[in-house]
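Collaborator request, handled under Task 6.
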Amino acid sequence: MRHIRYQEIADELRSRFADAPVGSVLPSESEMSAEFGASRVTIRRALELVREQGLIDARQGFGWYVAGEPVQQSLQSLGTIESQVEGVGKLSERKIEEFAFEPAPARVRKILDVDQVLRVKRVNLADGEPFAVVTVWCPADLGASLSRRDVERRPFYELLDVELRGATQTIGADIAAAADAALLGVPVGAPLLRCQRVTTDHAGRALLLSEHVFAAHRTEFVVDLPHSEPSMTPSGLRLVD
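Structure tokens returned to the collaborator:
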């Protein structure tokens, strides 16, 4: 029986990525061309054959990746990334990249109204794959008793001895610079979702400022909208020059 080269490559790709975590980025077409000693046209035909079976997909800026349903994050209530990831049956882990008490940058000082902060940068993992890069700023006096191990094991919401009222979250689009791309395992220039969250206490004081960066193919934000009379101007829309 005659074997067609692109079918052989497709069989190998199916075997290789059958059990890979959803969202894993595949090598580029040029890298696979060199590995298999085949033309880009042959590689593309093999990839398209595997995509027809729903195992992989492609998106501008990412290239090819292991297909699957993205994690849906509800905006209806104040929650953590861990709860959202675990809510869809995935294993949630966190890896601390940076932990430092330092002077507050101007942007952070304006929001938290403090001069010194605890800054924690971490990578959240879902089933072992990088899911989000999160940076949290907390007033230094509020975080004084926290250790690197504390913030690696539990969310700030569980560590702070303060009753929280809620948060304001702003979501925008961005592209991956080298640092975020390396941590998220995506190409430089890949599309990102960038979220800023300001968490307050019952007096309205801002206690936490956090920035969450997600690879755009790995998460979706979902909000249920109650029925109301239509208006000309959406209340949640802000235009940025």
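The cover message to the collaborator said: "The chain has a mean pLDDT of 83. The two ends are 62 Å apart (CA to CA). Please let us know whether this matches your experimental observations."
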